[in-house]
Amino acid sequence: MTYGLVSLVGAGPGDPELITLKGLRRLRDADVVVHDALIGLELLEECRPGAEIVDAGKRAGGPARPQQWITRLLIERARQGLRVVRLKGGDPFVFGRGAEEAEALVAAGIPWEVVPGVSSAVAVPAYAGIPLTHRAYAASFAVITGHEAADRTESRLHWQALARGIDTLVFLMSTGRLAAISAQLIEAGRPAVTPAAVIRQGTTAEQARVVADLATIAKETERAGLTPPTLLVVGEVVNLHAALAWFDPARARRLTLSVAAD
Length: 262
Fold this sequence. Notes:
This protein is α/β, with parallel strands linked by helices. It has two domains: 6-118, Cobalt-precorrin-4 Transmethylase, domain 1, CATH 3.40.1010.10; 121-244, Methyltransferase, Cobalt-precorrin-4 Transmethylase, Domain 2 (2-Layer Sandwich). 32% of the residues lie in helices and 19% in strands. The strands form two sheets. It has a five-stranded parallel β-sheet, sandwiched between helices. A five-stranded mixed β-sheet has the order 6-7-10-8-9, sandwiched between helices. Strand 6, helix 5 and strand 7 form a beta-alpha-beta unit.
């Protein structure tokens, strides 16, 4: 029996132009595309006519297919000899459950590959004028989940190491836990006045951000009404946001509307 290929493709952080050339080629060739809700949906216009397109959901607070259902679909379509793309927001192996899907494909004997994507952990701060490293301010950064697995009884996060040992911290999927994350970092030794930023819908025309210190970032984010998807950046590099701001969401929105009108 000849199986098809499953490609775990990173769609990038939201801006559809940030997908890689290899990812775009796989998308255009695919017989089946199983995508998450957080991708730039314009990418689906690149799918060939007749391709099966499946929305797997996976947006915080929104409907989503069970993970076992998704994995089973990938395996079934590959066993039919089809070219399958699992299109995931950001990078498949950065908090995208791509490794779990890859493990299932290995166990089933299905040929597979990973096509890395631009992670939101790097791209979203950059679009908000926040570099993760800077010779004067930050020699290290860490990417951390804002939500650990629900079935874990103990946290894997070493809060003192994060608070005292890493210059820039990026928390993904953190919207509902901003107050708890801030409190943990402050308790572990991070100064309460450390600059922090929450960025919503980064790299897209809907991008918005809130900047405050660590002690007040949760309250200011709630006051601004920012809803998922967001990420939290903590560190001195946040202070560069005004000087390095280059992306204008309003202009991007106007350009999007202009293209749609054409």
